[in-house]
Write a structure and sequence with these properties.
The protein has about 80 residues and is an alpha+beta fold. It has one domain. It has a 3-stranded antiparallel β-sheet, covered by helices on one side. Strand 2 and strand 3 form a beta hairpin. The longest helix has 24 residues. The radius of gyration is 14 Å and the shape is elongated.
Length: about 80
Amino acid sequence: MKITVNKNQQKINLNTHVANIITIAQQTAEKGGDTFTYHFPRGLGFDVFELGFEVRKQTEDSVFHFQIVDWTMNFCIRN
């Protein structure tokens, strides 16, 4: 049996989670908050650091993760 990995689906999954994190960051900022948590999903073909890097890149360093504990990422919003 041959197992194939769909790299396109992995990229779609990464982009979906990045969009979710950015949405949560926007909602948190609208409420006046500056930190929030996001539960990191396992087994989707990317790691926690890749997700954090992509969020930071797409938000131009205004949202970044500062702590990872038990598959939960803590994010901070810069002013």
